[in-house]
Amino acid sequence: QTKQTSHTAGPWRVEQHANRKFPACTEFEIWNQNTHITTVHEHVNDIQIDVSNARLIAAAPELLEALMLATRYLYKMEADGAETAVPVSNAIRVCDAVINKATGGAA
């Protein structure tokens, strides 16, 4: 099962700088090569939450790609009748739900 994605191509990167309107505040812009994706603004004065959110958003294209690759292998394992500690069908269900959420597919 292969899904097509229509998000801005990765990899994405994080750029940290002072907010243009409020220089005392930090913001994190997410970019690919030359396209601004989004901005994470200061969250309740907790810079670690901001950094973590920005890194997670920037990793999104690679996380989706890795999950889609892993799911292809899980489908093969299921088709081959692989015995695992966690049923392969459960892992597939969880992976498919996340891929569908990320790609806008049916959950």
What does this structure look like?
46% of the residues lie in helices and 17% in strands. The protein has 2 helices and 3 strands, in the order E-E-E-H-H. Strands 1-2-3 form a 3-stranded antiparallel sheet, with helices on one face. The model has no long low-confidence stretch (mean pLDDT 82).
Short note summarizing the structure:
With 107 residues, the protein is of the alpha+beta class. It is built from 2 helices and 3 strands, in the order βββαα.
Topology:
Elements (H helix, E strand, L loop, with lengths): L12 E6 L7 E6 L4 E6 L5 H33 L8 H16 L4
Features:
three-stranded antiparallel sheet; 2 helices; 107 residues
Enumerate the strands of the largest sheet in spatial order, edge to edge or round the barrel. 1-2-3
Counted beta strands: 3
Span between termini:
14 Å
> What is the helical fraction, as a range of percent?
40-55%
Largest sheet composition:
3 strands, antiparallel
The chain-level structural class is: alpha+beta
Q: Whole-number radius of gyration? A: 18 Å
The helix tally amounts to 2
Query: Into which percentage range does the β-strand content fall?
Result: 15-25%
- Low-confidence parts, pLDDT < 50 over ≥5 residues? none
Shape: elongated
